[in-house]
Amino acid sequence: MSRVGKKPVPIPGGVTVAVSGQKVDVSGPKGKLSWSAPAAIRMASSPDGKSVNVTRADDLKSSRALHGLSRSLVANMMEGVSRGYQKRLLIFGTGYGCNVSGKTLDLNVGFMGRGTKETPQFRIPIPDGVLVKAEVPAARGDSEPARLLIEGCDKQKVGQFAATVRRIRPPEPYKGKGIRYADEHVKRKQGKALAGGR
Question: What per-residue confidence (pLDDT) applies to 185?
């Protein structure tokens, strides 16, 4: 028995869960999510309605692998609709910036010959169910990064969008310019010394 999969998933206050066969629908203050489990996985609400139990139909290797995963996905759904998920990105670099226009994220991250003052270098569509807020300080410098807050109830969507944005300009190791997670540590390298310097 999977040590993770055998644990019931508690239903937080304010969250409504409907289990119908392989499908589970979860709704709460932060939104609604639904997911269909693989054929080998069984889900059912507890008799008291305070948790969801995830079991498997057999002990095949593939079923055992899906058991704990399925339980974790259902738990993430509960967390998402009740509290939500966040990712914070910092954009370091002089002249680097971001702006949110409707359902599009505009980025200027120092690529020469790409974009103009009127046209951003990158226009990234924001997925449904994801909210993005841009915070750009009035006085910018290398030490004052622009900030992006990415929020949503779907953990996978929030994490994937943050990774997509970061991939455009990962932080470089010499000056630290680029896009990084707020809790990310960038290992810095020492630049080459001047020729003949001591």
Answer: 87
Measured distance CA(84)–CA(58) in Å, rounded: 33
Q: For residue 73, name the pLDDT band (cuts at 50, 70, 90).
A: very high
CATH of 9-82, one of 3.40.30.10, 2.30.40.10, 3.30.2170.10, 3.90.930.12: 3.90.930.12
- The CA distance from 1 to 77, in Å, is 23
Write down the pLDDT at residue 37. Answer: 93
**The predicted structure's pLDDT at residue 197:** 52
Give me the pLDDT at residue 135, please. Answer: 81
Give the whole-angstrom CA distance, residue 135 versus residue 121.
Answer: 18
For 135, other C-beta atoms within 10 Å of its C-beta total 11
Q: CB within 8 A of 107, min separation 6: which ones?
A: 91, 97, 98, 120, 121, 122, 123, 124, 165, 168, 169
* Record: fold of 85-181: Outer Surface Protein A; domain 3 (3.90.930)
